[in-house]
Design brief:
CATH class of the largest domain in chain B: Mainly Alpha
Shape of chain A: elongated
Largest interface: A-B, 102 and 96 residues
Structural class of chain B: mainly alpha
Distance between the termini of chain A: 58 Å
Number of helices of chain A: 10
CATH topology of the largest domain in chain B: Serine Threonine Protein Phosphatase 5, Tetratricopeptide repeat
Oligomer: heterodimer
Shape of chain B: globular
Distance between the termini of chain B: 101 Å
Number of strands of chain A: 56
Helix content of chain B: 40-55%
Radius of gyration of chain B: 26 Å
């Protein structure tokens, strides 16, 4: 049904576009007459040009809109040139209207205007889709914009992390490692198996934000097992002028498929005419993990209260064990890995002291300047991070050059080049099997960390460690198993705009974003996870190449049809082409230690190549009519042709409409001292989405390793589908923007409702059909939610001003349907717990094993004094009930204080960390039952003995209790709410008299801090973690906590 | 106006261009041809891969050495006793075996059969049918009723995406018939020129040996039915022994997979023990070996680290302990398998890399002789009790030789031991069952199935930490099936019994009929 609708709308929409273009052209016929020409410039009090101001002769429909430089010019036909006085009026939303008396005579008349602002955040020029600037008052859908100052309050490794808590509806989860990834979701997840992150656009061109994180508990050579960052962090935050967040598909309808999850539009800084200006931003920060585990320090390694070290492999007493149910740490002499008969004492700081203090040094220098006809900006950035994990470092260099050149009055050109180079060393392994922090859960609490730090090998050249059965020395892992990766990226674009006439521009532009990423991970002899024990080491090399180029042709028309009615029209066509290539080489065994090269491979290396390409051709258009500056109706239409869909389904059309009305302008009597501004808006949009490449035909997959000399092939476990259709997201939203008491209070609120149907999913099917998944279109997920941003100025007296804002977002999702006969899709699973897209539940429902309970009383049923696994049940949902941010700026004379509180309420996780550290006896709550000695007083579990039906009286040891309890997922399901003091900045503005001597406009010295304080409900871990960079969330495995950072920042503003 | 016109022309050209791109989707569609993977592949590499997958699964570290060898108490766990107490044998742990078998080797063997049938070459589809039957038998023996007649067709236009579950009785009938047909079809076909050739990693394209394997496997399946359907067992045993090409005649006929041992494709037991030192020999198996002074003791097991503990240096640990009592056995019980570590001399050395290419035994001549011995003792398949002892001795001899004990004096001394010397009657059947169970070491699935059928050795009892008070008689169905094929799975449960460890599969449903099960468990 959908297909036929899509097909029938396609030609209709194309016709509509053609008609629209023609209509746009018609009024031009009326121009080109003789008479008077009135021209001038409209500026603000601050001297800034005001674009899109309407200038007209009062009482007539004669007039025009100002251009980007604030200039206007229009002709008055001879019959209208009265020779007498006339009133010329300039008006623009956000400013008080101004009028001037002129003599309307033939010839040139010049009249400038300076408009007095009525400042409110709701009334400004903002960036929207395709990089077009618009009056926010004329936008029909939700948008939030951040300036460079709001963005760069403090310093963090990626500008994305700086968005945390500042944009309602945007959820960001950063990483605790240097150069790690950030997980981003806007207004909830739409897609079961597809991408759920918004599209990033830099200066009009989509750029890649690939997450290079991989499965966190993957202990294999082919799985990197480290978090190698998000590629969007290649953009230097100091090069960003504004970030505009287009929240729903409504705002992003013109970007097509990839903006179904919203779009984040980045505008970079450009040069301006005038003298050469210099910008400097430099900071130095110190970092420590913000959350540590609450360890127990009464009992050391071992089991049943016994331990003696001989070889760390089981040769002693429990010395192969990596748990802390051993003897009490009372100073007795026991053979340990550090030597025979050593005092058996606690090292309470042993884990905490593993971490170094991290340092981040970051500097950007930029120069810009220009003339009337040309301008340019050059910036260089450098960031050096030495991480909190030993030997982990990250180095980033960026260079950016952008310029504009006007050729005559009609042609202007721009070009930009951004270069980024990232080098990371020794990114730590994540998660359970290969994670660097995993062994601190399975740990001897008596272990002396300094002994491990100071010695990697014993006198005989064997590895030196506290345990040789499960673990490698963590310092040896970081220092002797080198990992490095290097990404070089170029984002470049060029455009030419031809000004056809006063109201019509034609632009041709092209952009290329490409990067090469080289990843090398090397494993020394004896690496338990990766190196084959018979060989001298192992390695994995990976090369990736990613590129995308876009060529756009745009026709952009802006003109007033009458003095009250203006029209904005756009027609565009885009060709997008992208390529991806990856080559991987790995082996579990090399011959000569230290030579990590295929020529040294002792085991035939496994090789893999993958290449994909895809192309989308698109035509699109939009037409917006604005009446009197306060009522706008806009329609957009787009048709895509995708290479990844079957030929008969590869064309898909999607439209959107939106409207906004500024009630306080429409009905001036509505405006008062109390209500200064009120705007209502509504929007509906549809966005289509295509498939990944090569989903249409089933294949056989080969193995690079031959069986002896025999080639191997296996049929793919996915049943391909040559009838795939595009996915469709329908979205509706309404919103209101209002300000009160002369803008002392403003409100921007939205309600949205969206649904994604025909999802392209690799549906899990019964394996007994011979396959594991089947590609098909199925399922529907809905999301509805509410977002609000309230800004107040509670204090504005003399030198003191306090601005505070609160943003709030709640999203409710529901998996409405999946494929026929299917009621759940498992997104991730761990230890009998699953995170599912389950019909009737919100996306991300958490299921797991409960306690076995008595049906009538609800009391636990114990067997031999131990808790038991009950049936699987719904334990919660991984998504928060709501998120919010409270942002404050207090200014007094030269001083300023800013802080941001970031709040997450609700959402649950199954915590592997808490489960493991109880099972291993490492964390403090496992002292229960061994307060006196290892089995004294023991634990008499509260509940009913299943065998007798009587209350349990059986006493078990703490070790037995916790090693029975670990099977019960319910016991380790926690609430993920938190309140964090995310940002703090105390600043001092250097006096102007001094700054002027620096040829700058402002200079600021600040103390900056992040993640200073956290309130949380989950014990032992940071509730802010990403399990992976994909859709599999809701579990954690000893995540590396967010860092607390404190530092100094110096900014010189041009 | 000129400009307008020019612009209109540009716009028209652009729309035309876009239109052309849209109306000529060939160029777009062509970009979507996968350059990485072919849409078809020749049968040889698919067969090789399927055999590798199948052997690695059923004789490898998942099913055999981490699950069934613990259930049948040939191995025990010092470090992760939850396997031994059956916690880690619940659905979450065993689903991978079920799903992997269907989507892995069974599906790929189905493709080879389809290709062979299209080419009308028994030399291609015959070996694939035999291997598929070999796998299906493990699947149904482990879970009971499973999809069979509608399985493996989900990619066909009318193929079942949610196949129904067949009763095990019908699956066995299907497998027996399929093996008979394969043996017949392969008779007279040319294996070398038109067959799988070197891609046949078991017999190198020797179709006569494949016939023997087909008949031998048919005999294995036939005997398994003896407690519930003795008539069919009798007829099928006779047909198998008399099938075209016969059954295995010596160890040279053994179906074995020799691993390249290149670090990528290694013997799965060797590979698993190399990286983990948490498995020990079960006391149940070690007691049988030690009590009879079995020459295979030093092949199956390594001497205990602390050599002063046991008189002859070998010992096993109990199964199913709690963690705080299992750990001490780390150094008090024998590690498995000198067979997998030639050259090993002391603890901590995992031997030379030669162990990596130790073969996996898919089916052996020794097992066939044990089948014949039992058939003879029970007067089945055209054999008579008088033949039992000779077959029994030949079976033990074959097993010893298979494991590298070729010295005739050693073999004869072993055969003459009072525990081993054939007693005949029900005692003889028990001896046959116990010795067969010993010979099946490393094939945990068969050893477990034979124990279920014969109750021998009778010394198997659950450990103190076991979560059920009996030895599991089947595994749980896959958790995936519960979510995507629930109706058919529930129908099977309604027919067969609850989805738990205790439900008996069809051939295990009449224990009273087994003479070696006295008293019945």
């Amino acid at each position: 049904m959908n297909t036929s609708q899509t097909r029938s709308l396609g030609p209709l929409a194309r016709l509509a576009l053609a008609v629209a273009c023609t209509l746009l052209a018609l009024p031009a016929l009326a121009l080109a007459q003789q008479g008077a020409t009135i021209s001038g410039r409209v500026t603000s009090e601050a001297g800034e040009a005001l674009a899109n101001a309407s200038v007209f002769l009062q009482g007539t429909s004669i007039g025009t809109l100002t251009d980007a430089e604030g200039r206007y010019a229009f002709n008055v036909s001879p019959q209208n040139v009265t020779g007498g006085p006339a009133t010329l009026t300039a008006r623009r939303i956000g400013f008080r209207q101004a009028s001037a008396e002129i003599q309307l005579v033939a010839g040139n008349i010049s009249q400038d205007f300076t408009l007095e602002s009525m400042p409110t955040q709701l009334q400004a020029v903002v960036t929207t889709a395709l990089g077009i600037t618009k009056e926010k008052s004329q936008l029909g859908s939700a948008q939030q914009q951040l300036s460079t100052e709001e963005l760069n309050t403090t310093r963090s490794q990626s500008f994305v992390d700086q968005l945390q808590g500042k944009v309602s509806g945007l959820t960001i989860t950063g990483s605790g490692t240097a150069g790690g990834s950030s997980k981003i979701v806007l207004r909830g997840s739409n897609s079961i198996n597809g991408n759920n992150t918004p599209l990033f656009v830099v200066d009009g061109f989509p750029v890649a934000n690939d997450n290079r994180g991989s499965t966190p508990d993957g202990g294999s050579l082919s799985n990197l097992g480290v978090d190698a960052g998000s590629t969007i962090s290649d953009i230097n935050p100091d090069d960003i002028e504004t970030i505009s967040v287009l929240k729903g598909p409504n705002a992003a309808a013109l970007y097509g498929s990839r903006a179904a999850n919203g779009a984040i539009i980045i505008t970079t800084k450009h040069g301006r005419s005038g003298q050469v200006r210099t910008q400097l931003n430099t900071s130095y920060t110190w970092e420590r993990p913000s959350i540590f585990i609450d360890w127990q320090n009464l009992y050391g390694q071992g089991s049943a209260g016994n331990f003696r070290y001989v070889d760390g492999k089981g040769g002693g007493i429990n010395d192969n064990y990596d748990q802390s149910y051993g003897p009490r740490l009372d100073g007795r002499l026991i053979d340990q890995f550090t030597g025979p008969q050593q005092p058996w004492v606690a090292h309470p700081d042993n884990v905490d002291s593993f971490f170094d203090t991290g340092h981040t040094f970051s500097t950007t220098v930029a120069v810009s300047g220009g003339t009337e006809n040309a301008n340019a900006r050059l910036s260089l950035g450098n960031t050096n991070i030495s991480g909190v994990i030993p030997a982990n470092s990250f180095h980033n260099i960026t260079g950016s050059l952008g310029g504009e050149l006007k050729l005559g009055s009609r042609i202007s050109t721009t070009a930009s080049l951004q270069y980024a180079r990232n080098r990371a060393k020794n990114r730590p392994g994540m998660g359970y099997n290969t994670g660097i922090l995993e062994q601190f859960l399975w740990f001897g609490r008596q272990v002396d960390m300094d002994a491990l730090r100071n010695q990697f090998y014993d006198e005989d050249g064997n590895l030196f460690n506290w345990n040789h059965n499960f673990h490698n020395n963590p310092f040896w892992l970081q220092y002797e198993n080198p990992q490095r990766d290097n990404r070089e990226r170029v984002i470049t674009s060029a455009s030419g705009t031809y000004k056809v006439n006063d109201w019509l521009n034609a632009t041709l532009r092209a952009g290329l974003d490409s990067y090469n990423w080289r990843f090398e991970r090397m494993f020394a002899k004896g690496n338990l996870a990766f190196t084959n024990a018979n060989y001298a080491g192992a390695f994995t090399f990976l090369n990736q190449y990613n590129s995308e180029n876009n060529i756009d042709f745009l026709l952009n028309a802006t003109r007033s049809l009458t003095d009250r009615l203006s029209v904005d029209g756009l027609f565009g066509a885009t060709r997008r082409y992208s390529e991806y290539r990856t080559d991987q080489t790995y082996t579990a065994g090399i011959s000569v230690p230290g030579i990590y090269n295929v020529s040294n491979a002792a085991i035939s290396p496994t090789l893999s190549n993958y290449y994909s390409q895809r192309q989308t051709n698109s035509v699109y258009g939009s037409l917006a009519f604005t009446w009197d500056g306060w009522w706008t109706v806009e329609g957009t239409a787009r048709n895509d042709w995708s290479s990844t869909l079957p030929r008969r389904n590869n064309s898909y059309f999607y439209p959107s409409v939106n409207t906004s009305i500024v009630l306080t302008e429409a009905i001036p009597s509505l405006a008062s001292n109390v209500l200064s501004y009120l705007k209502l808006r509504a929007a509906y949009a549809q966005v289509g989405n295509d498939a990944s490449p090569y989903q249409l035909a089933s294949t056989y997959n080969g193995e690079s390793n031959k069986f002896g000399s025999l080639p191997l092939y296996a049929v793919s476990t996915n049943i391909a589908n040559f009838n795939l259709k595009p996915e469709l997201t329908n979205s509706f939203e309404v919103g209101a923007e209002a300000s009160f008491f002369d803008d002392r209070i403003s409100l921007d609120a939205s309600y949205y409702d969206k649904s994604t149907r025909n999802q392209i999913i690799n549906l899990v099917v019964s394996s007994t059909g011979g396959f594991l998944t089947k590609s098909l279109n199925a399922g529907e997920i809905t999301n509805h939610g509410f977002e609000a941003l309230v800004t107040l100025v509670p204090l504005r007296t003399g030198d003191l001003e306090w601005t505070t804002s609160f943003n709030f977002a709640r999203n409710r999702s529901e998996v409405v349907s999946l494929a026929p006969g299917l009621n759940t899709v498992v997104l991730a699973s761990q230890r009998s717990a699953t995170v599912e897209a389950h019909v009737g539940e919100p996306y991300g429902a958490l299921y797991g094993r409960t306690y076995k309970r008595d049906a009538t009383t609800g009391e636990l049923l114990l067997s031999n004094g131990l808790p038991q696994q009950g049936p699987t049940a719904l334990l919660g949902n991984i998504n928060p009930d709501w998120t919010g941010g409270w942002n404050n700026t207090i200014k007094y004379r030269q001083f300023s204080l800013g802080f941001l509180v970031d709040i997450r309420q609700g959402g649950e996780t199954f915590s592997n960390t808490n489960m493991m550290c109880e099972q291993s006896g490492a964390c403090a709550n496992t002292l229960l039952g061994r307060e006196v000695d290892w089995n004294n007083p023991g634990i008499v579990g509260k509940g009913i003995d299943e065998a007798t039906g009587q209350p349990n009286e059986k006493n078990v040891t703490s070790e037995q209790w916790f090693q029975a309890k670990w099977l019960i997922n319910e016991a380790y399901t926690y609430d993920l709410s938190y309140v964090k003091l995310r940002e703090l900045r105390v600043g001092y503005n250097v006096p102007t008299s001094f700054v002027n001597r620096l040829s700058a406009s402002a200079a600021n010295v600040s103390l900056v801090a992040r993640n200073l304080w956290t309130h949380k409900n989950i014990p032992n871990i940071d509730p802010e973690f990403a399990y992976s960079s994909g859709n599999a969330q809701g579990f954690e495995y000893m995540p590396i906590p967010q860092n607390r950072s404190i530092g100094l920042n110096v900014q010189i503003t041009p | 106006m000129m400009i307008i016109k020019r612009l209109a022309t540009i716009a028209a050209a652009l729309m035309l261009g876009a239109g052309v791109a849209a109306c000529n989707p060939d160029s777009l569609t062509r970009q979507n041809t996968d350059p990485n993977n072919p849409t078809d592949a020749p049968p040889g590499p698919v067969f090789t891969n399927a055999v590798r997958m199948a052997v690695n699964r059923w004789l490898g570290s998942g099913y055999s050495m981490n699950q069934t060898s613990f259930v049948t108490q040939q191995l025990a766990q010092t470090t992760y006793p939850t396997v031994d107490s059956y916690v880690d044998l619940q659905a979450a742990s065993t689903s991978g075996t079920f799903d992997g078998a269907y989507s892995g080797e069974l599906s790929n063997l189905e493709k080879v059969i389809e290709k062979g049938e299209t080419l009308e070459r028994p030399s291609i589809y015959g070996p694939a049918q035999v291997m598929q039957a070999w796998v299906y038998a493990y699947v149904t023996d482990t879970y009971g009723d499973v999809p069979y007649s509608e399985a493996l067709q989900a990619d066909k236009p009318d193929g079942a995406v949610t196949p129904s579950y067949d009763a095990q009785k019908d699956i066995y009938a299907g497998l027996l018939q399929s093996l008979g047909n394969a043996a017949t079809d392969m008779a007279g076909a040319s294996g070398a020129s038109e067959g799988l050739g070197s891609a046949d990693v078991i017999y190198g394209g020797n179709l006569q040996k494949w016939q023997r394997f087909a008949n031998s496997l048919r005999a294995r399946l036939a005997l398994r039915l003896v407690n519930v359907d003795p008539a069919t067992a009798n007829a099928e045993l006779a047909a198998a022994f008399a099938g075209p090409g016969g059954v295995f005649e010596s160890n040279a006929d053994n179906a074995i997979l020799v691993w390249p041992g290149d670090g990528v494709y290694d013997n799965p037991w060797t590979n698993a023990n190399k990286g983990r030192d948490d498995r020990r020999m079960s006391r149940t198996l070690m007691n049988v070996l030690i009590n009879s002074n079995d020459p295979r003791t030093g092949v199956y097991a390594q001497p205990v680290e602390d050599s002063t503990v046991y008189p002859n240096g070998y010992g096993g640990m109990p199964n199913g302990l709690l963690q705080d009592s299992s750990s001490k056995w780390f150094s008090l019980a024998s590690r498995p398998g000198l067979a997998f570590y030639p050259g090993v001399t002391s603890y901590g050395t995992f031997g030379t890399s030669a162990g990596l290419s130790t073969p996996s035994y898919v089916m052996t001549y020794a097992e066939v002789m044990f089948i014949k011995a039992e058939a003879a003792q029970r007067g089945l398949g055209g054999l008579s009790p008088a033949d039992a002892e000779a077959n029994y001795k030949a079976a033990i001899t074959a097993s010893l030789e298979q494991w590298g004990i070729t010295d005739a004096a050693t073999i004869n001394a072993f055969l003459a031991r009072p525990e081993i010397a054939y007693k005949g009657g029900t005692d003889g059947l028990k001896q046959i069952a116990v010795q067969k169970w010993v010979a099946l070491f490393t094939d945990g699935g068969q050893a477990w199935a034979e124990w279920r059928r014969t109750c021998q050795p009778s010394t198997l009892v659950p450990g103190p930490a076991a979560i059920v008070n009996y030895i599991p008689r089947r595994f749980f169905y896959s958790t995936r099936e519960a979510s995507v094929n629930a109706d058919n799975m529930q129908a099977a449960i309604a027919r067969q019994g609850p989805d738990n460890f205790g439900t008996r599969v069809y051939w295990d449903s009449n224990p009273d009929a087994a003479p070696t099960c006295t008293p019945a468990p």
